[in-house]
Amino acid sequence: MNRLSLAPMFFALALSCGAFAQSSAAPPAVVPHDTVAQDTVDVPTLMQAYHDAVVGHDGNRLAALFLPEGSTWINVLGDTAYERVKKAKPDAAKIRISNYKAFATLVSTTKDNFNPTHTNVHILTDGIVASVYFDFVFLINGKEQNRGSEMWQLVKGANGWRIAAITYSSNPLPA
């Protein structure tokens, strides 16, 4: 796919994650406990497991990194991107609230190669809760499609670290 055909797909992803979450797709299968335990041993390992799951099209592994209930996924379009989207779709929302299931489904079903890159990572933790803030560039088939900043809220339960919420700014490239 070329950049022009991917840009609308990414806008659709950014604006309609809620539609995926409400689809009739089956929930992700259970990932073996030992895999989850290894993926959630510490915050950097959790982040690497997230990346590996996205790159590897493993929606089940990705889903296992989140709290099963209550995890929130918030996408906020940057001002320029929002104005661009509003021209095509006047009722477009600037803030979209969804959950991880939509992205896990997309990761599992896409034929495109996704590669989220994270830089300037800042982790704050007391060993029980953590906040992770970083800049990201989201590559699809090796080409930048989106960039912004992202925040993860993490909790450490009896079975390791889990993502409780992801909030990110979204600045997709124009088509």
Automatic annotation (TrEMBL):
<feature type="signal peptide">
    <location>
        <begin position="1"/>
        <end position="21"/>
    </location>
</feature>
<keyword id="KW-0732">Signal</keyword>
<protein>
    <recommendedName>
        <fullName>SnoaL-like domain-containing protein</fullName>
    </recommendedName>
</protein>
<dbReference type="InterPro" id="IPR032710">
    <property type="entry name" value="NTF2-like_dom_sf"/>
</dbReference>
